[in-house]
Design brief:
With 81 residues, this protein is of the alpha+beta class. The chain is built from two helices and four strands, in the order βαβαββ. The chain has one domain: Translation Initiation Factor IF3 (2-Layer Sandwich), CATH 3.30.110.40. Helix content is 28%, strand content 31%. The longest helix is centred in the middle third of the chain and has 12 residues.
């Protein structure tokens, strides 16, 4: 299994949709192309909507990790604008 160098982390477990995607998008915008962001989110709507929205923005989903505690870590590589 490939591991990734995480450049930044953002925790969106304290917000609800659609603010979850907004916080994730802002965190991605602060990265340089090719950098990797880890997004911690809750199960349910965030895990259904945030990965899809990020992919639609053109970024690369590297991995979705189930933390077995009701949260997930979404690993995303920023793709150029």
């Amino acid at each position: 299994m490939a591991e990734f160098k995480i450049d930044e982390n953002v925790d969106i477990t304290d917000v609800v949709c659609p603010t979850t995607f907004v916080k994730a998008k802002v965190a991605l915008e602060e990265l340089d192309e090719g950098q990797v962001l880890s997004i911690r989110m809750n199960d349910g709507e965030p895990v259904q909507n945030v990965p899809r929205s990020i992919k639609e923005e053109g970024h690369q989903i590297l991995k979705l990790i189930d933390n077995d505690d009701g949260t997930y870590d979404l690993i995303v590589r920023k793709v150029g604008e």
